[in-house]
UniProtKB/TrEMBL annotation:
Its main location: cytoplasm. It comes from the Bacteria. Gene3D superfamilies: Isopropylmalate Dehydrogenase. This is 4-hydroxythreonine-4-phosphate dehydrogenase. InterPro entries: PdxA, PdxA_fam. The gene is pdxA. The lineage of its organism: Bacteria, Pseudomonadati, Pseudomonadota, Betaproteobacteria, Rhodocyclales. Keywords: Cobalt, Cytoplasm, Magnesium, Metal-binding, NAD, NADP, Oxidoreductase, Pyridoxine biosynthesis, Zinc. It comes from Aromatoleum diolicum.
Amino acid sequence: MSALPIFAITSGEPAGVGPELCARLLERDWPVRLVVLGDIGLIRARGGKSRRVVPFDAALGRGPAGALEVLHVPLNAPAQAGVLDPANASYVLALLDRALAGCQSGEFAGMVTAPVHKGVINDAGVAFTGHTEYLAEHTHTPLVVMMLVGGGLRVALATTHLPLAAVPAAITREVLEETLRILHADLVARFALAAPRILVAGLNPHAGEGGHMGREEIEIITPVLETLRAEGMRLIGPLPADTLFVPHTLEQGDAVLAMYHDQGLPVLKHASFGGGVNVTLGLPIIRTSVDHGTALDLAGTGRADPGSLFAAVELAIDMARVRA
């Protein structure tokens, strides 16, 4: 039998729900080999006695049947469910570094990330704004695009984790043009859409109301769309965000580009929370993630829903097949 492709699953913040969600991957039969990155003792403790957890053996073409493979990365300090500890911040980043190295070397076909806690990483003295920005920096990728998929929607963001007051200045012609190029290219290359239609939101209420509620649509967004339309891209907008997400308009597009985080993601999460997937576009590797946080209040209770993690694995597999 030929060797199965391997996907790395980072278990994320050890005080959160990530380790126990990863253990639940055994509830499905997967057409690929999944390897969880994390402290093997932690995964065993959070996974329950009914789940068989074994060390990852790279020499095997296929993992042992009925077992969860774990690539052991040791905790820096004992982890307690629901209790954050800055001492384990570098452990969380080590999981990302190891998964990324494996993707870059070809050991892994892609990586799927369980949630991390930005605050505790920053408390440990490491400037960290999120997976998206971290992976961009460590792959030397000048610009990446965050897109969430779920509930029949694909919503990408022109800006990500910024204070709202900083958003307008961050939306320049250059950034918006490159963002649309990345979004278009990956919709073609990784989602098998030959001629994707992209709905582009305006920044201001009513898409600026002809300049009466802001001029970004006139001075930045529309000129960029006109340039890219001349190259053959199918771009619709700028559209008022409050009416963009109605069924009649959504039917006209394959993806949405929102101008900032809370313009587009509340709609998608309303449609798909617990089953949505975060995708980083523009990277030289495949990376997907859950659409939720560490859920410290649920950690260790066994009540956390693995639906988003399962969906993230499924999408990573699909993207790898398209790319192949």
